[in-house]
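Re-run requested by the PI after the first attempt was lost when the workstation crashed. Everything re-entered from the original request form. Ligand of interest: 3-methyl-2-oxobutanoic acid.
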Amino acid sequence: MSTAKGKFKKITTHKLREMKAAGEKIAMLTAYDYSMAKILDGAGIDVLLVGDSASNVMAGNETTVPITLDHMIWHATSVVKGVDRALIVVDVPFGSYQGNSSEALRSSIRIMKESGAHAVKMEGGVEVKESITRVLTAGIPVMGHLGLTPQSIYKFGTYTVRAKDEQEAEKLLEDAKLLEEIGCFSIVLEKIPADLAKRVAEAVDIPIIGIGAGPHVDGQVLVVHDMLGITQDFKPRFLRQYADLNKTISDAVGAYIKDIKAEDFPNTEESY
Ligand code: KIV
């Protein structure tokens, strides 16, 4: 088996900052398992997010709330084994960092030590300042996440566009500046108006990665199951579907079933 280890220059948090300064856009996708991570890394993705969206797309939950720290570490460990080049960021799940900086530190250290990932991501602004600051003091790179923060879905009540009014927009802008000031290396902005995302990207030097935040940011992220067309019932306006893997897989499995029923598979060449 061939290996690409050492063949490519690895992506670091510093490299992402250089990319922003040079105007080179950052490509990020989610990944939850070894096989997919290997394909995405081989294709040249810059950042892989072991997102707590694993709760939805891997475990079939309605929200990201139920996924645990142990689940996240298991997914992250699998992803790390498949990656040679990309920067691997792991979501700290709901209930593992909010309102308790010691727990935030413990959770983040477990993620880094047990999975071998390179950074963690936490949702929220000033409300989680203490938790993020404590994690940063341990030398763990932190990516922020503002706008629609799915871990707070029961507070918002809906997955609609955030920060449409001036008050929420101003708070988001202040939160982004705060996250940069305390030392976050990047921020995800989810589902906010494109003009606001542009203001944020211009106001800070750290890379801003958008999902449903328009084109005027420093990079884009999508959930890999959504952009490959594996997910069927999720078609928000911001999603561009690059493949129809649901149909491809369904057709392949249909053909397999047909061949078995017709006693066509396996044939003599496929038998010992
Ligand atoms: O968990 C996730 O997939 C995310 C992205 C939507 C950014 O946080």
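Saved to the shared folder this time. The chain has eleven helices and eight strands.
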